[in-house]
Specification:
The chain has about 450 residues and is of the alpha+beta class. The chain has helices at about 5-15, 20-40, 45-50, 55, 75-85, 105-110, 120-140, 145, 150-170, 170-185, 190-195, 205-220, 240-245, 275-285, 305-310, 320-325, 325-335, 355-360, 370, 410-435, 445-455, and strands spanning about 65, 70, 230, 235, 295-300, 360-365, 380-385, 390-395. The radius of gyration is 21 Å and the shape is globular.
């Protein structure tokens, strides 16, 4: 019963000066990556529909919505901006918990628009949100996902509650209660909406950001809840109910020595991370294919989780989610287009007849030898067969993994490629400069103000 309390207490007591410089720099990178991805998502047709949800969420306020000059309530802004970071499927993530803890950032930004928060307090709140969300997801992985739940929505809500509590300045006891309340009101986000390719999928991030803030406000009002592990009398917390075998010791594993945000990856392909290895192997292989090569058969060997979850064929679908979570389509797209970026992997390009036909020839195989490598590495082998053609390519760690990091140039290209179309190069640069020197900012609401100032809409 004490592990979750010790985790929250560690975060509450953490002093900014105790955080290693490399961890601060990684936190800034996560914030900048989130901003680019969310601003880019706001420019899409799906993003504009997400923004329209403010019409029924409603309520006046001073919190910025990315993609519009309109301001709204804290909860509405967190919900919308949290959802926008999932639209392009380019958000950061952590492989040990299968989670996208960046949901804590829109919660922090929505609150910071309403109360003066300096850059150091903001950075600490975001870092601690990642720490809580990631460690909870790790304690439940992989059983939580295997039972059909998405930890971004569940554990992500607890992380957002931690972040919101710090920005609100809650005392230690109320911060404990906020995370407990989050574990009671968090969304039970079902993975089938993701694997099935349903368009509602991105909203689990927005819900996690919104309910995390609500949990902190409820704790501030004096409400309480049992801890993550459940009540002292009966146990049966949400972790147990949705997971079964929870490894609570992971909540404290190397706490204060290894910050989980250090192992967060950045995406270069707008897809489920479990498809990145197959995608990269196919892209590398495509460079060797003869011009107009006839491909009769493709075999993708991968670890069991990826093979089980992404072996689907979204033929004829007009929903981008269906394509983002299909190994057969991703591999076919990579082999025929020979490139895959956020610029060319959008809905209007996804119903290419040749790619659809090739995807029908893709066989996805669960390989026990590759499964044994997971999660240390996430391997895939792509094999291509045709007349006079037989080639294979393996990828163990796709680009963006901290062990195969994106270069600074690649990271900046992604950020500017996503944000500059909306803000202009000058506006995107001004926003980046703020994040690069965030520890010196006296009021973090300047982030939202800068986005609104430069918005081309």
């Amino acid at each position: 019963m004490e592990n979750s309390k010790k985790l929250v207490d560690f975060c509450w007591n953490l002093e900014y000066g105790e955080i290693p410089e490399k961890v601060i720099e990684k936190t800034k990178a996560c914030i900048l990556d989130y901003l680019g991805v969310a601003i880019g998502g706001a420019q899409t047709a799906t993003g504009k529909r997400v923004i329209d949800s403010d019409k029924w969420l409603g309520g006046g306020g001073s919190s910025v919505i990315f993609g519009t000059e309109h301001k709204t309530s804290v909860l509405s802004a967190a919900f919308i901006n949290g959802t926008l970071c999932e639209v392009l499927e380019l958000q950061d993530g952590w492989r040990f918990g299968n989670i996208h803890a960046c949901v804590v950032i829109p919660a922090a930004l929505a609150l910071a628009d309403t109360r003066k928060t300096d850059g150091r307090a903001f950075l600490k709140s975001v870092l601690c949100g990642y720490e809580v969300a990631n460690r909870i997801s790790h304690a439940m992985h992989p059983n939580h996902l295997a039972k059909g739940y998405l930890p971004t929505g569940t554990a992500g809500t607890c992380g957002s509650a931690m972040t919101a509590s710090l920005i609100l300045g809650l005392d230690q006891e109320k911060t404990q209660q906020s995370v407990g309340i989050a574990s009671f009101i968090l969304p039970v986000t079902t993975a089938e909406n993701l694997w099935g390719g349903y368009s509602i999928k991105p909203f689990h991030s927005g819900q996690a950001a919104k309910e995390g803030i609500a949990s902190a406000f409820l704790a501030q009002q004096g409400f309480d809840a049992c801890p993550l592990e459940g009540s002292p009398e009966r146990g049966r917390g949400w972790c147990d109910i949705t997971t079964g075998d929870v490894k609570y010791d992971r909540l404290l594993l190397n706490l204060g020595k290894n910050y989980t945000i250090s192992d967060v990856y950045f995406k270069v392909y707008p897809l489920c991370r479990h498809a990145h290895h197959a995608c990269e192997a196919a892209l590398n292989l495509s460079k060797r294919l003869p011009e107009n090569a006839k491909i009769d058969r493709v075999v993708v060997r991968t670890y069991d989780l990826a093979a089980h979850l992404l072996n689907r064929y979204p033929h004829g679908s007009d929903n981008q989610v269906a394509y983002q979570f299909s190994i057969p389509y991703v591999v076919s797209f990579a082999l025929l287009r020979k490139q895959l970026s956020y610029l060319n992997y959008v809905v209007e390009n996804l119903q290419d007849k040749d790619i659809v036909e090739l995807s029908k020839k893709v066989e996805v195989v669960s390989d026990p030898a590759l499964t044994a490598c997971y999660p240390d590495v996430t391997p895939s082998i792509v094999e291509v067969y045709g007349p006079g053609l037989e080639d294979t390519e393996r990828c163990d760690m796709p680009k963006g993994d901290p062990r195969v990091p994106v270069t600074l140039s690649e990271f900046n290209d992604k950020y500017f490629g996503l944000s500059a179309p909306a803000l202009s190069e000058e506006g995107a640069k001004e926003l980046k400069d703020i994040i690069d020197h965030l520890e010196d900012v006296s009021d973090v609401s300047v982030i939202g103000e800068t986005i609104t100032k430069w918005l081309k809409r």
